[in-house]
Amino acid sequence: MYVAVKGGEAAIANAHRLLADRRRGDRSVPALRLDQIVEQLALGVDRVMSEGSLYDRELAALAVVQARGDMIEAIFLVRAYRTTLPRFGYTSPVDTGAMQVERRVSAAYKDLPGGQVLGPTFDYTHRLLDPELAAGADVEAPAQRPVEAEAMPSVSSILAHEGLIEADGDMPLDHVPGDITREPLQFPMARDIRLQALSRGDEGFLLALGYSTQRGYARNHPFAGEVRIGEVELELDIPELPFAVPIGSIRVTECQMVNQFKGSAKAPPQFTRGYGLVFGQSERKAMAMALCDRALRASELGEDVVAAAQDEEFVISHSDNVQATGFVEHLKLPHYVDFQAELDLVRRMRAEYEARESSDTAEEKREAAE
Amino acid sequence: MNAQPTEIATYNFAYLDEQTKRMIRRAILKGIAIPGYQVPFASREMPMPYGWGTGGVQVTASIIGPDDVLKVIDQGADDTTNAVSIRAFFKKVANVAVTTETAAATIIQTRHRIPEHPLTARQVLVFQVPIPEPLRFLEPRETETRKMHALEEYGLMHVKLYEDIARHGRIATTYAYPVKVEGRYVMDPSPTPKFDNPKMHRSPALQLFGAGREKRIYAVPPFTDVVSLDFEDHPFEVQTFDQPCALCAAENVYLDEVILDDHGGHMFVCSDTDHCEKRRADPTSPLWGGRAEGAGGGSLATPPTTPTPALRADPPRKGEGKEAE
Q1: Cys bridge to B109: A104, A141, B126, B217, which one at CB 3.0-4.6 A?
Q2: Where are the domains positioned within chain A?
Q3: For the segment B18-37, what is each residue's pLDDT rounded down to a tens digit?
Q4: Average pLDDT, whole number, for chain B?
Q5: How far is B84 from chain A (nearest CA, A)?
Q6: Active-site entry in B276, B294, B296, B297
Q7: Per-residue pLDDT at B149
Q8: Exposed, middle or buried: residue A87 (CB in 10 Å: 0-12, 13-18, 19+)?
Q9: So what's the pLDDT on residue A142?
Q10: What are phi and psi of A275, to 5 degrees?
Q11: Which of A139, A4, A140, A159 is nearest to B272 (CA)?
Q12: Counting one residue from A and one from B, how many pairs have CB atoms under 8 Å apart?
């Protein structure tokens, strides 16, 4: 008997064939169509687009099916595809103030220009399982307000003139935004790079870190200044044309977190801000991102770095779930060459230990006999 | 949006687009120019997971041409699942010739081993690297370790090795054993057992290291000094085995311990499957003579001094061990 991994090729092919079978499941149940996933599992699709950094619902839906609903696997599929796409250019900065808002809430103000708009939210639903949904009951058409003629100004622009809340901040005019998919990460990072990394970071990881700041690890007194969800238009500068050309719109979730700040040697007392922006509809992710962004600004604002959420290398190096899952799961790969090396070392050390022990015991016996 | 399966399925030669390859080749050239220095590069997502050889695959994809002959090994073996998978990947996306024969390959991608058969100047050895930073487990911060490399501040590493000796009577690092390259950079040779370290020294083959998740590439150009760190009174030693390979009787090669039953029965066989098969297939092969010196081909460190205590040192009995293939 010899159990080395012979015939790997056939084994791999058979494993993948079985995977395809399990993915399809009972053949008497109709196969999922991509449009069903796009329409009915939309938030899952949004997460895959957001962390996969590719805005394409159909491909994200395909990835979800192909991954059997495993979100990180689906995100990975999308990433591995997007990385092969040519880069045609970069759009102009998106103006989220001009967003076609479907939902917009502020926890800092009771009312504000544009008003509070709940939109399609789970908030205030009672989490009771709905048997009617299982039965496939008909759903009422929604009641919607007419489209607003004017865009809703963002909360930060409403407050800016008082000077109590920090401004959006400026980048030098010649600043070219970085691109984490085209340049290696280097620490310390500029905030634009950091925000990119956070935006594609793992929702669960950022959620836990954001949560930790609320529980006292780098506490920063947050208020949800504004959360908004809606469509924003993308514009691209085309070299031959004197104006930017609209190329389509995407749905995003934006969060402006407002944080109390007592002031430091570097900055006066004021409200500081953390920012979150993700593809699709994901308030949890946008809010967690904003908390982490604010925590990571510790050194910029002259705060002591005392907790994990403030540690840029720690947060950014471990936020990417495609990297994390790969490295954790690579432990499944054979390591027997290294294990052999360690086995050899432990055997030697163990033999020495036992020799020492037995000579000690002999010594003790001899002494006892005397 | 309406991506057709046929559109998605078309990829460039060797998967990566040419711009990406150029970027990676630049990083490789920089790495060759500064032996042992970790060059940051914009690592791409690959269709296999991070930690499964994406760095090595990107390096190979960037240097491979239609005329190359590729060999892929994992743990020294051509037939381990991940080696099979990577070899199949290049066969598919680059349509190159693949081989299991060390001497026939122009590019050898490896995880955890250097082949026993000596390499030549027309070969490139590509290592898959999980953690490229040799100082990482002493200092977790990249900002700090980069500084330490810049200042050639390697005291911490020597202290670690010294503490090993003070505590265990020997340097307790058995793989990923740190080396100094061309007298300047301390480098992680990837988690190859230290047995393979001497093969890197003045190897005629170009040695490239790719760490995809950590986004680093580094290189050891041909005929470069690669010296394992040690102390005068505790010189570097490689692993030794009490018994030869149970299949081909090779000595002075790296062996894997294969468990035979649940009563502690085991045998030792070559980790390098190609080397082992060649020797068994052709007893007149030059591989039979002397030790396999591998890439370095040069002097090997001190001969074995301490015999390895094995749980069971007797050779496998007849009827035990691998059945004749």
Answers
A1: B126
A2: 9-82, 96-121+148-322
A3: 999 999 999 999 999 999 99
A4: 86
A5: 6
A6: B276
A7: 98
A8: exposed
A9: 92
A10: -125, 140
A11: A4
A12: 166
Q: DSSP secondary-structure letter at A114?
A: T
Q: Which of B210, B212, B248, B294 is catalytic?
A: B248
Catalytic residue among B31, B53, B210, B245: B245
Q: Is the pLDDT of residue A129 over 60?
A: yes
| Alpha helices by DSSP H, chain B | 5-8, 18-33, 54-63, 81-93, 142-150, 155-168, 197-200, 273-281
Buried b (16+ CB within 10 A) or exposed e, A177-191: ebebbeebbeeebeb
* pTM (2 d.p.): 0.85
Higher pLDDT, B301 or B252: B252
pLDDT in tens, B34-86: 999 999 999 999 999 999 999 999 999 999 999 999 999 999 999 888 999 99
Structure-block tokens of residue B324: 């004749």
Phi, psi of B278 (to 5 degrees): -60, -45
Question: Is residue B245 flagged as an active site residue?
Answer: yes
Let me know: does A156 contact A225? Beta carbons within 8 Å. Answer: yes
Burial A196-233 (b: 16+ CB within 10 A, else e): bbbbbbbbebbbebbebbeeeebbbebebbbbbbbebb
Higher pLDDT, B260 or B272: B272
Selecting from A1, A12, A56 the residue whose C-beta is nearest the C-beta of B1 gives A56
Q: Is B117:B199 a contact under the CB 8 Å cutoff? A: no
Burial class (CB in 10 A: 0-12, 13-18, 19+), B82: buried
Question: Euclidean distance between the first and final Cα of chain B, in Å?
Answer: 52
Chain A contact present for B113, CB below 8 A: yes
- Interchain CB distance below 8 Å, A83 and B46: yes
**Residue (of A224, A205, A203) closest to A46 by Cα position:** A203
Letter for the amino acid at B89?
Answer: F
CB contact under 8 A, A338 and B112: yes
Q: pLDDT band for A265, please (50, 70, 90 cuts).
A: confident
Mean pLDDT over residues B129-155, rounded? 95
pLDDT of residue B10: 65
The strand pair at B179-181 and A222-237 is best described as unpaired
Of B245, B223, B227, the C-alpha closest to B236 is B227
Other C-beta atoms lying within 10 Å of the C-beta of residue B284: 6
Q: Do A4 and B247 meet the contact criterion of CB atoms below 8 Å apart?
A: no
Q: Is B212 a catalytic residue?
A: no
Task: Specify whether the CB–CB gap between B268 and B252 falls below 8 A.
Answer: no
Q: Could you write out the DSSP letters of every residue in A253-268?
A: EEEEEEEEE---SSS-
Helix (H) or strand (E) holding A20: helix A8-24
Alpha-carbon distances of B149 from B101, B155, B175, rounded to whole Å: 37, 11, 21
To the query of whether residue B265 is one of the catalytic residues in this protein, the response is no
Tally Cβ neighbours within 10 Å of residue A19. 11
How far apart CA B189 and CA B129 sit, in angstroms, is 8
Return d(Cα A322, Cα A309) in angstroms, integer. 20
**Are the Cβ atoms of A84 and B11 closer than 8 angstroms?**
yes
Q: What percent of chain B has pLDDT over 90?
A: 71
Cα–Cα distance for residue pair B228/B186, rounded to 1 Å: 9
Do B266 and B312 meet the contact criterion of CB atoms below 8 Å apart? yes
